[in-house]
Amino acid sequence: MGFKKAFPLLYDTKYMLNNSNVLWNAVGNATDLTSAFLALKAYEEHTPVVELAEDFQEYTLKTVDKDSAASHEAGFDALCTGYIFFKSLGILRNSFLDEGYSLVSLIDLAPYLKDPSFVEKMKFFENRVILHC
């Protein structure tokens, strides 16, 4: 199976944060992983809730800071990237559709991932991955 077949769409969160005025303003121009994560925590009220399993003890969403010992561990970076992606989708969804509706869970977001209007606007971000070598 080819890479493109396994992953037909890719979204680079840093590209999204740097190329959307709405997201750029939301993170206060700080697009590094930890700073973006911390900035998006302020959007709890208007974006999907991201929670960890109760029995997961390795990292917590409440203790993330610039000096976190977990920074740059693969699992921690994946957690932060996923968090940033879903929060960004919620912010963009609210911005694109502007219906005064706040997302409260990832389940609320699911129907909009298939909404033709939302999908069309998200095409700008599709497969624009920046590789830093």
- Per the principal axes of the C-alpha atoms, what is the gross shape? globular
Structural class: mainly alpha
SSE ordering: HHHHHHH
Assign a percent range to the helix content: 40-55%
Q: What is the average of the pLDDT values?
A: 75
Give the radius of gyration. 15 Å
Binned strand content = under 5%
How would you characterize the overall build of this protein?
With 133 residues, this protein is mainly alpha-helical. The chain has one domain (7-125). It has helices at 3-6, 13-19, 21-26, 33-40, 74-97, 106-109, 116-122. The chain contains 7 helices and no strands. Helices cover 45% and strands 0% of the residues. α4 (33-40) crosses α5.
How do you describe this structure in short?
The protein has one domain (7-125).
Features:
mainly alpha; 0% strand; 133 residues; 7 helices; globular; 45% helix
How would the blueprint of this fold be written?
Blueprint: H1 3-6, H2 13-19, H3 21-26, H4 33-40, H5 74-97, H6 106-109, H7 116-122
